[in-house]
């Protein structure tokens, strides 16, 4: 039921906001096998929703996301939250999962294929 709810809610969000691309954090394996399996199932549902919407999906390692946002790949949750708030003034993530989601978006904006196209176009036009 939880996976079905996740699918329905993500489908509504994608339909409402109509993004043209998506990013997701790669799964990491920890000591808790059951927790890793549950995370993988939820991630699979998220990727299914994105595929159903026809969105290209970029994947980023957790350390790459932290390095993009904080500057170091082994930052803790508080540091990620703080830097997300600094880089996105007015953002008020409710909890570490929301801060992580915004951090992934920031990482994607920095590193997505073609992310530098606007800056390059502006430089060429000047």
Q: How would you describe this protein?
A:
- By secondary structure, the chain is mainly α.
- The protein has helices at residues 2-17, 33-52, 62-69, 77-87, 96-111, 117-125; strands at residues 22-25, 57-60.
- Strands 1-2 form a two-stranded parallel sheet.
- Helix 2 links the parallel strand 1 and strand 2 (57-60).
- Helix 1 (2-17) packs parallel to helix 2.
- The longest helix is centred in the middle third of the chain and has 20 residues, at 33-52.
- 18% of the residues are buried.
- The mean pLDDT is 89.
Short description:
This protein is mainly alpha-helical.
Keywords, please?
126 residues, mainly alpha, two-stranded parallel ribbon, 2 strands, 63% helix, 6% strand
List the helices and strands and how they pair.
Blueprint: H1 2-17, E1 22-25, H2 33-52, E2 57-60, H3 62-69, H4 77-87, H5 96-111, H6 117-125
Helix pairs in contact: 1-2, 3-5, 4-5
Number of strands: 2
The shape, in one word, is: globular
Secondary structure class reads mainly alpha
Radius of gyration: 16 Å
Largest sheet strand order: 1-2
Strand content range = 5-15%
Can you give the helix content as a percent range?
55-70%
Mean pLDDT, as a whole number? 89
Q: Which stretches of 5+ consecutive residues score pLDDT under 50?
A: none
Largest sheet: 2 strands, parallel
Number of continuous helical runs: 6
Q: Write the element-wise H/E pattern from the N-terminal end onward.
A: HEHEHHHH
Termini, distance in Å? 55 Å
């Amino acid at each position: 039921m939880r996976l079905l709810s996740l699918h329905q809610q993500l489908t509504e969000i994608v339909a409402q906001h109509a993004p043209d691309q998506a990013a997701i954090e790669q799964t990491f394996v920890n000591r808790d096998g059951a927790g890793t399996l549950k995370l993988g199932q939820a991630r699979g549902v998220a990727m299914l929703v994105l595929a159903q919407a026809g969105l290209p999906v970029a994947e980023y390692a957790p350390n790459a996301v932290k390095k993009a946002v904080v500057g170091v790949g082994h930052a803790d949750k508080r540091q990620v939250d703080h830097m997300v708030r600094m880089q996105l003034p007015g953002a008020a993530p409710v909890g570490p999962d929301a801060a992580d989601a915004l951090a992934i978006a920031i990482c994607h904006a920095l590193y997505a294929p073609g992310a530098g196209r606007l800056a390059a176009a502006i430089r060429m036009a000047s």
